[in-house]
Give the backbone structure.
Amino acid sequence: MAKTGERSRAAAGSVLDGLHFALDRSSPVPLYYQLAQQLEAAIEHGALAPGNLLGNEIDLSARLGLSRPTVRQAIQSLVDKGLLVRRRGVGTQVVHSQVKRPLELSSLYDDLEAAGQGPTTRVVRNEQVPASADVAAALGTAEGAEVTLLERLRSAHGQPVAFLCNYLPPALLDLDSVRLEATGLYHLMRLAGITLHSARQTVGARAANAEEAALLAEREGAALLTMRRTAYDDTGRPVEYGTHIYRASRYAFDFQLLVRS
């Protein structure tokens, strides 16, 4: 047991040695929150990588000069966000960073890849189906007309992040499932000479049903972010209608607001 504790302390020291925690004890912001924010920033920017061990609460308390309840509260807040996990006999371990995606016309695959999140895709469905009223209206076709349906499970660092459901005009481009699992849909569109120009998008939230929870490795009733988008090419033609769900514990939309003069 002593050797296990020594290994845990050594791991924590090697991971935290290069990090600087600026904790302001005179600030009205609670110390646990300051520590949690700085640990989260270190995870987000890659200073703490998936798999890194932080050690146990006793080690962290001594190392940072904080009480155990303060450290415990900071760690718990990041465990609740899904960024850290407690492992008996090992200590606290980094799981992954939350995906923060810009609210713009971009591909989730491209955004994950650019952020070093190691995206992977599993194609669940790739087939022709009759368009429902909503799909027909979005794509400018007749209700019941044939459209292409894609359902894909997108993961980052081996963990499910989103379930993507897309409808496209049937003759738009070659949608081979092998290629769809190797790259993003928008990349395939660009290769086919399709220039994406604009989109109408609605973001919302709801609770996961049993099927969605199983797909996304969440509990039933967990919070999901939702996105509904119709994308248009540079001729004004609708080329994609998507209804996506994302794990709120692992995903956030990030955007900048400007003051209108």
